[in-house]
Amino acid sequence: MVDPDAAEDAGRTLSWLVMAGPMRISAAMPAFVPYLLRLAADPEVPHRGKHFETVLVAAALSEPVDPGNAWDLAVNGPEEEHPERALCRRVFEANAAWVRRLLADDQLLEGESLIQDERDALRRAAGLGGA
């Protein structure tokens, strides 16, 4: 059972640990993705929407960089310099059942303004397709 009084601070601290900076996932993120997926999927977890937001950020920031796109390379760096992105994608793929569960969770998505790009990034990260 998650302590509801500590949940908000713990969630914020966890998000700091899995991010290397603004718009960069850390090397620790791949290890935390399965945990975050399960926290976000559990209706009993306080503030689970925040965990889902971190999952969405991880999915978006783990997308591969197009080596032919100079802007993408300048902003995100080449894939070989950021192995955490490919590791995250593999972890998302290994946990695709949890991703499907989250995307079908009407209670979690109720009131959320989950834009199609976020949904597609999460689906792509888990190897489920997406635009």
SSE layout and pairings?
Blueprint lengths: L3 H15 E3 L2 E2 L3 H13 L6 H14 L8 H7 L6 H12 L1 H8 L2 H4 L6 H10 L6
Antiparallel strand pairs: 1-2
Helix pairs in contact: 2-3, 2-5, 2-6, 3-8
Commentary on this structure:
With 131 residues, this protein is mainly alpha-helical. 63% of the residues lie in helices and 4% in strands. The protein is built from eight helices and two strands, in the order αββααααααα. Strand 1 (19-21) and strand 2 (24-25) form a beta hairpin.
Gyration radius (Cα, Å) is: 15 Å
- What composes the largest sheet? 2 strands, antiparallel
First-residue to last-residue Cα separation: 37 Å
Derived from helix and strand composition plus strand pairing, the structural class reads mainly alpha
Order of helices and strands: HEEHHHHHHH
pLDDT under 50 segments (min length 5)? Answer: none
What strand line-up does the widest sheet have?
1-2
Helix content: 55-70%
Taken as a percent bin, the fraction of beta residues is under 5%
Number of DSSP-assigned strands = 2
* Mean pLDDT across residues: 86
Number of helices: 8
Morphology call: globular
List keywords for this structure.
131 residues, mainly alpha, two-stranded antiparallel sheet
Give a short overview.
This protein is mainly alpha-helical and 131 residues long.
